[in-house]
Amino acid sequence: MPRIARYSSSRRDPVPAAEDTPLAAGAGPAEPTPPLADPAATPPSPRRRPKIAWMLLILVLALNAGVLGYWLYEQQHRAPQPITQKDIDAAVLRALQTQTLPSPTAKAAAKIAPSVVHVVGYTRTKRGTEVERGEGTGVVVVDTGVILTNLHVVNGSRRIAVQFADGTKSDARVINVQPENDLAVLQANEPPDDLQAAAMRSTDGLNAGDQVIAVGFPFGIGPSVSAGVLSGFKREFQSPEGKQALRNLIQFDAAANPGNSGGPLVTMDGEVIGIVTAILNPTAARTSLGIGFAVPIENAAKAVGSPPF
To answer: pTM value?
Structure first.
């Protein structure tokens, strides 16, 4: 018996021509079959991805530029923010942390410095030679050249010379004295045009322990500044020679030596509260042992002839 083949033949029957193909019932003529494209004859389509990437990049840059421009416009036209106390406190704290501020003593010394004067009294020997008789300090109390100092600095002098803070020198004359408080008032013959008078304040309200400075020319060196505190009020002092007793004095412990006489005793606000007059030292050296005395400015004002406040 012949064996039946289980696979189709690899040979194919030729496709009949269109005109030979029978039409299905009710169908019109068949559409012609389009010819197959020849891969070798068709050009490849252009690649579109790089062009799209550039377009996206340009779009992103444009958006960024727009956002940046809007932000800059807002920064330039936005209303300024009010400064709060917190902002001020923060600024002060930064300044304190980054800058070294002057001490209260330095500020007080700077305020009184333009008004401190070096005072020298001269006399003549029998041969007519002029020699220095006394040296001390003064403080300008009126800007026309009126100066307070100690009477013992200028007493008995034939000529008095003063030197101001700016280096200007002038002769001066005594225009009033107050022996009971060891005070003398001088008038400079040629004071500087821009002379600055010291600020003064009453001793009312001051207490033992308040800080003070004494400014002067100890041993001719200066102006020098020494610091201390008020030690007491209404003190009395008897001169070593026993010739004079001073009362109602301010006691202080800032160092004072010969040459400080007549200089100002000053608060931390730079205001004069007294005129340095004496130091307590029972030895012949007459140098500072830590106890000094000053005439209250209220008493000193009487020598000038007008209240200082």
So the answer is: 0.69
